[in-house]
Amino acid sequence: QSGKPYFVSVSGLSLEENVALVGFYQSMPNIDAIELNLSCPNLPGKPQTGYDFEQVRRILDAVCPLTTLPMGVKLPPYFDMVHFEQMAVILNGYPLAFVTCINSVGNGLVIDADTETVVIKPKNGFGGLGGDYVKPTALANVNAFFRLLRPEIAVIGCGGVKNGQDAFEHILCGAAAVQIGTQLMRENTPVFTRIAAELQTLMLQKGYTRLQDFRGKLKYL
């Protein structure tokens, strides 16, 4: 009803579920793109799919032929340059429209010192980190994949975007768009208008009139 593009993000518990989900949303009207989350869910005894490169290949081999919609993948954070390069080689071999970097940084632990207990219940308190904590890691992943992926694959930046400057930094690193999670939870949908206005103000201060004026033009020492 808003007239805006509608992305649906999916993550099955198995290869078969991913195939079923992509096929289901391919058949639905008014879906503009599918994001396949390779960093979620976390199954006991198994690594995240995004850290199992051969499983990533098997999933993409199965789901890519199923849809004519623009499809992308959401990735976990990577911390080693070799892993950036290995995953980019895989992704460059498929007709993906976008890659989202990053999902939460896994297995952080937050403690309530007053009660001497963990803050969340699942996995004995171990949970994914988002927000301010992950922005440097998110920016690194955005920039690495922007440089390593085919130009036809857009990068969507995700992690620590709470104001216009954060969005600017993601775009400067190469993001074609940004996702907002933690701050959306805090402010609800007015956050988008605020951040867009702050980004526009910052662009005007720098003399930029289009995102393309600075997207991916991060300077190196």
Overview of this protein structure:
This protein is of the alpha/beta class. Helix content is 36%, strand content 18%. The chain has 7 helices and 10 strands. It has helices spanning 15-26, 53-63, 81-91, 135-148, 164-172, 182-187, 190-206; strands at 7-10, 33-37, 71-75, 98-101, 105-109, 111-112, 117-118, 126-129, 154-158, 177-179. The strands form 3 sheets. It has a 6-stranded parallel sheet with strand order 1-2-3-4-9-10. A two-stranded antiparallel ribbon has the order 5-8. Helix 1 (15-26) links the parallel strand 1 and strand 2. The longest helix is centred in the last third of the chain and has 17 residues, at 190-206. The chain is globular. The N and C termini lie far apart (46 Å).
Itemize the secondary structure elements and their pairings:
Layout (H helix, E strand, L loop, with lengths): L6 E4 L4 H12 L6 E5 L15 H11 L7 E5 L5 H11 L6 E4 L3 E5 L1 E2 L4 E2 L7 E4 L5 H14 L5 E5 L5 H9 L4 E3 L2 H6 L2 H17 L15
Parallel strand pairs: 1-2, 2-3, 3-4, 4-9, 9-10
Antiparallel strand pairs: 5-8, 6-7
Helix pairs in contact: 1-2, 3-4, 5-7
